[in-house]
Amino acid sequence: MIIKKKALFIHVPKTGGISVGRLFNKGYKGVHKIPSKKNIKKYYSFVFVRHPIDRFVSAFEYQKSLTQNNINAHMKLRSRMRDMKYNFDKFVLSLTPKDIQTNVHYRKQCAWVLNGIDYIGRFENFDEDLKNILTEMGEADKIKHIKKHNPSKRRDIQTYLKTSGVVKRLRDLYADDFKKFGYPTLPEIK
Fold it and tell me: Which has the higher per-residue pLDDT, 71 or 168?
């Protein structure tokens, strides 16, 4: 979450938040806090969301890539991933709602997105939505500086969704996100 120029950006992990943060603050590291309703009303607030399954795959690949030096906050699930030899299907089927709730990268997006947020952008429409936000904030001069940071390095999403059990489990775990943000249950990723 960053607050600048009477604006509140809620950084949902794996939705382009590093890019947004660096646009406003060169040294931005990212703070993953759920905002208070008081702050939502006080500032122009915005957030980006992403298709829940695409975001999950991105988080899975990100956690696979972590080095020993930066895994402390993610130790429990990353250890499970390693024990399962980074098998995506086994990992998904092992997850509980508590696992999802306690890890910021897997937490449901609707937990971050409170009622009253002024603009909900979509990762799938990132550049256009960010231009709209910047224009609304009077920061249109920053539009030419939009640069994506930390992009996912992964295979095509369909290669992760081989079994109906995995798809069903992800649909169940993220049912609230699908409903709140109106995403189709299977991503249409190019």
Answer: 168
